[in-house]
Amino acid sequence: MRPATSSTASCTASWFAAAAFAMVMTVGGGLVAAQSGPDSENGRYSMTPIPEGVLRLDTRTGTVSTCTKNGAGWACYAVPDERTALDAEIGRLQSEVEKLKGQIAAGPTVSGKIDEPLPKSDPLKKAEPKAAEGDRKIEIPLPSDQDMDRVMSFLEKAWRRLIDMANRVQKDVSGKI
């Protein structure tokens, strides 16, 4: 066996260094190529099929869009952000509360007590008919003119139908004899 010389060791070391460098460049070059590709291939968008088309989630911004296919191609429309709408409504209500607090503070004070007592009877309740000395009287309201017209119209129609039916029966009987 021959002892290793420094030139052989340096040649082997440089060969290993060159192989390692080539491997790093191959892996690194693949990463650079993957990063320079389109965003959809890099995982920016997450697609989920829905009956109308596709639901697209932008993983960087968090926006959600529905994509549908129409005659001209695919079109994506942003789905309204519920959180933004809720925040806007909360802000509107807070400003309204502050405005109302200001109106209450500026307005006249109202005490909760009334000097006169409230009536004990219900104004919407109909008064019961009073019995005069043991006689009970029942009041029956008469029908209105509109009710009478409806009844008369019904009776006229019924009478005409009855007369028409009697005429048809008479024609049928006279034709058979």
If you had to describe this structure to a student in words, what would you say it looks like?
Mean pLDDT is 75; it is low at 6-11 and 27-40. The chain has 177 residues and is α+β, with helices and mostly antiparallel strands. Helix content is 49%, strand content 14%.
User: Regions with pLDDT < 50 over 5+ consecutive residues?
Assistant: 6-11, 27-40
The fraction of residues assigned to DSSP E strands is: 5-15%
Number of helices: 3
Shape: flat
Please describe the biggest sheet, giving its number of strands, its sense, and whether it closes into a barrel.
4 strands, antiparallel
**SSE arrangement, N to C:** HEEEEHH
Mean pLDDT: 75
Distance between the termini: 145 Å
Specify the helix fraction band. 40-55%
Radius of gyration of CA atoms, rounded to a whole number: 47 Å
Spatial order of strands in the largest sheet: 1-2-3-4
| Computed structural class | alpha+beta
Number of strands: 4
